[in-house]
Amino acid sequence: MPVSASPTRKLAAVGAVIALVVALIAIAVAVGSSVEGDRDTGGTDAPEAAASTDPQVDPAQQKMFDDLAKRTSRRADGDPLAIGKKDAPVVLVEYADYQCSFCGRFTRETQPGLTKKFVDQGTLRIEFRNFTVFGAHSERAARASWAAGQQGKFWQLHDELYAKTRKGAALAEDKLVEMARKSGVDDLDKFRTDMNSADAERALKKDQDEGYQLGVQSTPSFLVNGRPVAGAQPQEVFARAIEEAAARAKHGTADKGAGK
After folding, report:
1. Nearest to 138 by CA among 111, 112, 168, 160
2. Residue 40: exposed, middle, or buried by beta-carbon count in 10 A (0-12, 13-18, 19+)?
3. Phi and psi of 70, rounded to 5°?
4. For the segment 77-105, what is each residue's pLDDT rounded down to a tens digit?
5. 220: preceding bond cis by omega (within 30 degrees)
């Protein structure tokens, strides 16, 4: 008789497969040369193949992407770090650092178009993850964005942080408080308290742990319904990935309906 793997071994195997799939992100962006070095390797010179949006993807590979989407798409009610309908057919998960210039490029140049074309139409939900790779200044900025979210101003501060590339002392606490004020955060005392709270630390650790467990190593990194898209790719690359994911979701719904 065949011997079944223990639950622990099964879990480890699943985790290894998922890490291998998502590690494609890091491999792909490593091929593209970063002008800044370190792990800010998400330039638009990263190969378009990193988007991996071939509609003829192998069914077994697609199943891995689907499983990955289920594990990473939180779809939480009232999540301040998300925009779009909770039940949108496509979820884009972004892992980013506030000192990452290419993350800022995505926010300024690509996300507005995706929001207008897909989020506003109910097709796409975007969920942001604070995946810090540049140390204490990045972590402080991440906690600040979470704190702004406690007053419903996450995206306002997020956009202000990415309005231009900010590094080091530009992300000192007093600077972040001033940016929060500019972003419409009303209670700055509460903002400062929340930014330095244990809850903020836990929220940041949750995002970081998720990314590391998946094998994410570079910023920005994205999953579109579980499929890796590496770096600040042109808007057309994201649009194609979203459209293909939406088509697959629609096809899957139709198949379920036909099976009733």
Report:
1. 168
2. buried
3. -65, -35
4. 999 999 999 999 999 999 999 999 999 99
5. yes
One-letter amino acid for residue 186 of the chain: D
Examine the pLDDT at 230 and tell me if it is beyond 90. Answer: no
Q: Is pTM beyond 0.90 here? A: no
| Residue with tokens 């809850």, as numbered in its chain | 199
HSE value, Cβ hemisphere, 13 Å, CA-based, for 141: 31
Tell me what percent of the chain is helix, strand and coil, each rounded to the nearest 5.
55, 10, 35
**24, two tokens:** 């494609």
Pairing of strands 90-96, 124-130: parallel
Q: What is the three-class DSSP state of 165?
A: coil
CATH tag, 9-258: 3.40.30.10
In the numeric block, the tokens 């600077």 are attached to 175
